Amino acid sequence: MQTLSQQQYIDGIKDGNTIVLSRAITLLESTRSDHQALAREVLEELLPLTGRSKRLGVTGVPGVGKSTFIEAIGELLIEDDKKLAVLAVDPSSQLSKGSILGDKTRMEKLSAHPSVFIRPTAAGDALGGVGRRTRETILLCEAAGFDYVLVETVGVGQSEIAVHSMVDCFLLLLLSGAGDELQGIKRGIMEMADIIAINKAFINSELKPQAKQAMQELRNALHYFPEKDNSWLTKVCATDSLEGEGVQKMVETLDSFFNHQRLKGYDLERRKKQDLFWFHETIRSRLLSQFYQNDEKQKEITQMVAAIEAGRISSFKAADALFEKE
Amino acid sequence: MQTLSQQQYIDGIKDGNTIVLSRAITLLESTRSDHQALAREVLEELLPLTGRSKRLGVTGVPGVGKSTFIEAIGELLIEDDKKLAVLAVDPSSQLSKGSILGDKTRMEKLSAHPSVFIRPTAAGDALGGVGRRTRETILLCEAAGFDYVLVETVGVGQSEIAVHSMVDCFLLLLLSGAGDELQGIKRGIMEMADIIAINKAFINSELKPQAKQAMQELRNALHYFPEKDNSWLTKVCATDSLEGEGVQKMVETLDSFFNHQRLKGYDLERRKKQDLFWFHETIRSRLLSQFYQNDEKQKEITQMVAAIEAGRISSFKAADALFEKE
Predict the structure, then answer these.
(1) In three state form, how does the secondary structure of B181-195 look?
(2) What average pLDDT is seen over chain B?
(3) What's the pLDDT tens digit per position in B41-77?
(4) Contact indicator for A110, A116 with CB cutoff of 8 Å
């Protein structure tokens, strides 16, 4: 990979040049440490330009219609002259070394628009695959002048916790099914949501009965959740990205959420908490990788595991022994 | 605290002397590292005698009737000539430096019986307060010859994850209320349960209608959960510890669970996984405390946090900087 100079990356991103932005993200995702170091120097220089976008996380199980949903609200945002970056995070790409969400054609209209930047982001190694790189990518997009940064993730693991810890607003998409709305989704994810949308909720512009029922059930269930720090009561909406129903209302709900946060000062508070979360998470992750990636240590660990399995030593004593040898 | 000699602890515990056992546990819980070291030497010597008991975790929100429940099934077990150790874990004791669960009078009949050992265990610092010490205490009880070790915990935090990782069977107590059985309890905890008991489910030996409904709802909900490794389908029972209803059936359900596990070899497999879990968890916890308890490091961390909050440095760069100085 041919790299640009540090100044070329900085200037290009400042100018909102998406080709340079894209190359900087690739640099971040490189396995070569000199590439990563260069990308991070660029990021530190651009830090004063970050923090100005609205960061929105969108999650939901496969098939719920995340891409169409993002396309639908994205269109409204760009009509309003907003610039929009969409980061599609695929937690499985850690295994496949590529991103199955990278299919830009899924967002046909958005991907053709000059105000939109769509980018699959490869999963890193922190918190279920979504971590540092995605967060750094958000910051680069902000420096490039995007008004909204949407982070799309599949609702199937720890990746939501990571995404929740890097966005201002966390949006959960659900489908209304046969009365089992509450069973299908992990409780923890529902608790994190600021807004829940029942997607594919309309047929011929009419709200489906099961969507209505699902909304009611959700609102009931939400009463049992602990109150959020920001005193925002999770909103439940109905949308249909293909029919276009409820999309305008969704954008209004988003606005009212962002207003609520800004008026109460919760927007800055949340970001401050997130910064500290990632500070400590990075420390944790570095400590572990330092420890486990040591060849000497790995041999000892293998021996200890064998001793534990044979019942010759307790787990605790075995762990202690690894430290005593230091 | 006056300590015994290592050999005195070992001999006493081998003899099933509960006074010596109790003193060894106190040693484990001491904040003095020489006490802990002595206790751990004792434990390593006793290791060949551990692993023979049935380890049972009992969890549920305050008020669900855990103590009465344990008393009720405990009575059946001792009638069957079993020896029983009950460890009451209070996750809040990390704050209060004492255990509110330490009130032995709550289990009047059991606490007076010579085959029963009841002990509140102070919470440690791993996994929400329940970790190493509780697990080590289980092992000491096993070496002392108890057939059953029951670990009681309040279902309000991370402590269930810890307890789940140290027992053979995880039992969740619920109350039947006004149709909101599924809302009140964290989903993750329900997924961990091997057996769920609706407690206080009878009135004048009749199953209450809402208990019946709760059982049905639970069984429906359980269908949506992923299948367990051990191919055991979580059982739902109704009990009433005060009336004594359902308690015999509960003990039979326990037996059938333990039989299932033994026949399929899942009992050993589960314990092996738990051993490895605690091995890595102990490593993690030691790495973190080593790092954060360093005075020099703490100063740097404070400076970095200030720089992050002022927006002068990214969370990641700040964390990296702590490692570069090493």
Answers:
(1) HHHHCCHHHHHHCCE
(2) 84
(3) 999 999 999 999 999 999 887 778 888 999 999 999 9
(4) yes
Taking an 8 Å cut-off on Cβ atoms, the answer to whether A272 and B309 are in contact is yes
Torsion sign over Cα B240, B245, B249, B251 = positive
d(CA B64, CA B155): 10
d(CA B323, CA B326): 5
Chain B residue with the nearest C-alpha to that of A191: B186
Compute the Cα dihedral for B44, B46, B48, B52 and give only its sign: negative
Q: Are the CB atoms for B290 and B265 separated by under 8 Å?
A: no
Exposure of B172 by Cβ count < 10 A (0-12 exposed, 13-18 middle, 19+ buried)? buried
Contacts of residue B65, Cβ cutoff 8 Å, sequence gap at least 6 = B173, B199, B200, B241, B242
**Residue contact A187–B187, C-beta within 8 A:** yes
Interface predicted TM-score (ipTM) over 0.85: no
Other beta carbons less than 10 A from residue B109's beta carbon: 12
A43 token code pair? 């990021």
**What are A181-220's pLDDT values in tens digits?**
444 556 567 778 999 999 999 998 899 988 888 888 788 7
CA distances from B261 to A24, A74, B34, B51, B233 (A): 53, 52, 39, 15, 12
If you measure CA to CA, which chain B residue comes closest to A140?
B314
* Structural domain spans, chain B: 1-49, 51-264, 279-324
**Structural element, H or E, at residue A268:** helix A266-292
Using one digit for the tens of pLDDT, what is the confidence trace for B280-304? 988 988 899 889 988 999 999 999 9
Of all residues in chain A, the one with the smallest CA distance to B271 is A309
Q: Which of B180, B279, B283 sits opposite A291 (nearest CB)?
A: B283
Q: How high is the pLDDT of residue B299?
A: 94
Judged by CB atoms closer than 8 Å, whether chains meet at A187 and B186 is answered as yes
User: Coil, strand or helix: which one is A122?
Assistant: coil
Burial category of A35 from C-beta neighbours within 10 Å (exposed 0-12, middle 13-18, buried 19 and up):
middle
- What is the reported pLDDT for A326? 55
pTM of the model: 0.75
Residue A9 C-alpha from the chain's centroid: 24
Comparing A167-176, A224-233, B109-118, the range with the smallest average pLDDT is A224-233
pLDDT in tens, B70-82: 999 999 999 999 9
Q: Is A51-264 a CATH 3.40.50.620 domain?
A: no
**Number of neighbouring beta carbons within 10 Å of residue A208:** 17
Extract the tokens encoding A299. 């041999």
Does the beta carbon of A51 lie under 8 angstroms from any beta carbon of chain B? yes
Residues of A in contact with B187 (CB under 8 A): 186-188
pLDDT at B291: 92
Domain A1-49: which CATH number of 3.40.190.10, 1.20.5.170, 3.30.390.10, 3.40.50.2300: 1.20.5.170
Which residue of B51, B188, B311 is in closest CB contact with A187? B188
Picking from B305, B312, B316, the nearest residue to A136 by CB comes out as: B316
Taken in order A276, B287, B152, B236, the sign of the CA dihedral is: positive
Both structure tokens of A82: 């907003």
Q: Which of the four pLDDT bands, split at 50, 70 and 90, describes residue B31?
A: confident
Q: Which of B94, B305, B251 is nearest to A280 (CA)?
A: B305
Q: How many CB atoms lie within 10 A of CB B55?
A: 27
Q: Examine domains A1-49 and A51-264 and report if their fold is the same.
A: no
Contact B191, B159 (CB under 8 A): no
